[in-house]
Amino acid sequence: xxxxxxxxxxxxxxxxxxxxxxxxxxxxxxxxxxxxxxxxxxxxxxxxxxxxxxxxxxxxxxxxxxxxxxxxxxxxxxxxxxxxxxxxxxxxxxxxxxxxxxxxxxxxxxxxxxxxxxxxxxxxxxxxxxxxxxxxxxxxxxxxxxxxxxxxxxxxxxxxxxxxxxxxxxxxxxxxxxxxxxxxxxxxxxxxxxxxxxxxxxxxxxxxxxxxxxxxxxxxxxxxxxxxxxxxxxxxxxxxxxxxxxxxxxxxxxxxxxxxxxxxxxxxxxxxxxxxxxxxxxxxxxxxxxxxxxxxxxxxxxxxxxxxxxxxxxxxxxxxxxxxxxxxxxxxxxxxx
Length: 337
Ligand code: NDP
Hints:
Elements: E1 4-6, E2 13-15, E3 17-20, H1 24-28, H2 31-43, E4 48-50, H3 59-68, E5 77-82, H4 98-112, E6 117-122, H5 131-143, E7 147-152, H6 157-170, E8 174-177, H7 192-199, E9 202-206, H8 236-240, H9 246-253, H10 256-262, H11 266-275, E10 280-285, H12 290-296, H13 306-316
Parallel strand pairs: 3-4, 3-10, 4-5, 5-6, 6-7, 7-8, 8-9, 9-10
Antiparallel strand pairs: 1-2
Bound molecules: NADPH dihydro-nicotinamide-adenine-dinucleotide phosphate.
Residues 20-22, 24, 50, 123, 153-154, 178, 206-212, 215, 217, 228-229, 267, 284-288, 292, 295-296 line the site of NADPH dihydro-nicotinamide-adenine-dinucleotide phosphate.
């Protein structure tokens, strides 16, 4: 069974494991595999789904919409995002301006075949738009009933604080941040998590398996496995590349006996690890095939004891990235078009 957690200081519950369709739908896998994977997620008890307008340049939202068509809307929590350039990528097809937010929410809803999304997220911080303009636009989206809650992704602690102040003033239900977080990438622990706890924001964390690296299937000095993300030249390969170093892959192999001892698979250990952090509302996992998601959901409601947590830290040594200032570099300082 998949457990549930509240999203921020709100009354909304999300499944502890969210299924996300970045680099898979309308890209790495064909539509029938994509739809079968979404159905496997539903069968396994996942009710929360994440996508973005930018995934496969808007096509991933269409596939997710198709895959969820006919499901009871009240039983799902559906998230999407705005910020990155989409469509013909004109000067206003990007960012967090009032114009782009207004046009993007309508386009996302059409592609998803929905009247509203549960969570609408600013995919990055936009240094070129006044924050007040962005939050006023989000307030309108919420008042129009097109999104129930507002979140952001990869914002720094200072940006979260500024956003929360405006959200309070404008009565915007701002509930979450979506950062990268895994045993290998712990940069949110220093500043983002403590600030979020204070502000009543949850983390919905992406790539908890480090894009598949923490499954242990990438072996040091060996060719990458056939059909894996690392072989996806269309998109996935360039994102996973920075983890495919011998020091990282060797350290990951040292986790195998720890997973066995805990009675978990390596992917389950990786997902359970992020869920030990109480500020994490959900682990946002990907899957290129149904059997991955069916097996990975068993990570929900697992408690890792302190010996296991300590053994993980010892096995990984100084390989995990912990520098809190790394969040400062995630949002582009200027718009991409
Ligand atoms: P994960 O770390 O969960 O990686 C998922 C990938 O790992 C799968 O696609 C699969 O790749 C591999 N995998 C999964 N299960 C297994 C298994 N049991 N055995 C072996 N390999 C396995 O997360 P993602 O990187 O996919 O990100 C998840 C979601 O997070 C995205 O879909 C998106 O919604 C969100 N995200 C958000 C970002 C943001 O900026 N806000 C950025 C990136 C992601 P394969 O089979 O191809 O090797």
